[in-house]
């Protein structure tokens, strides 16, 4: 028998919404830690480039595209045109166009919920929600996973900006550290394959 959201589950005494949230926390907790580290780095870089504090929550909430946000910081502070920024964002994130083939969006009900699921879809949320159990996941669980990752990204970028302003303001070359990390990760991936 299908459960309605918020209905009591006879075997646990908890509502399905509570269970979906707990499962989503378990699904996304490790991802949120990784996202937080990268978000701190982005916030520090935003501060190091002299961008105002409001760019931290705005960029992380509106764009929410991870690696392209690091590119955008350099492009924005370098005075790149809006057209070149838009083209770069599209090219870097074109992989998202094929996510619809296996992402279980059909499990999410309602236009608002589907819009939120699409906006908060990132590589990590896709990986967590598109596993072998994707057709058994509830729409609420999918939304919670996406939302938890999204919120952890925004909060960590803002925290990184504040930490950058407070403790790392005079540190030079912080933007190079992230380039170095991505370069080392790419080299390790190449050697492994």
Index terms:
about 190 residues, mainly alpha
Task: Give a description of the structure.
- The protein is an all-alpha fold.
- It has helices at 16-48, 55-62, 67-77, 82-92, 111-119, 123-129, 139-166, 174-192.
- α1 packs parallel to α7, α2 runs antiparallel to α7 (139-166) and α3 runs antiparallel to α4.
- It has 8 helices and no strands.
- It is globular.
Question: What is the topological layout?
Answer:
Elements: H1 16-48, H2 55-62, H3 67-77, H4 82-92, H5 111-119, H6 123-129, H7 139-166, H8 174-192
Helix pairs in contact: 1-7, 2-7, 3-4, 6-7
Structural class designation: mainly alpha
SSE string: HHHHHHHH
Task: Give the C-alpha Rg.
Answer: 19 Å
Main sheet attributes: strand count, strand direction, barrel closure? none
Beta fraction of the residues?
under 5%
| End-to-end gap | 46 Å
Q: State the total count of DSSP E strands.
A: 0
Mean pLDDT across residues: 83
Q: Number of helix segments?
A: 8
Percent range for helical residues? 55-70%
Outline: globular
Which ranges are low-confidence, i.e. pLDDT below 50, for 5 or more consecutive residues? 1-13
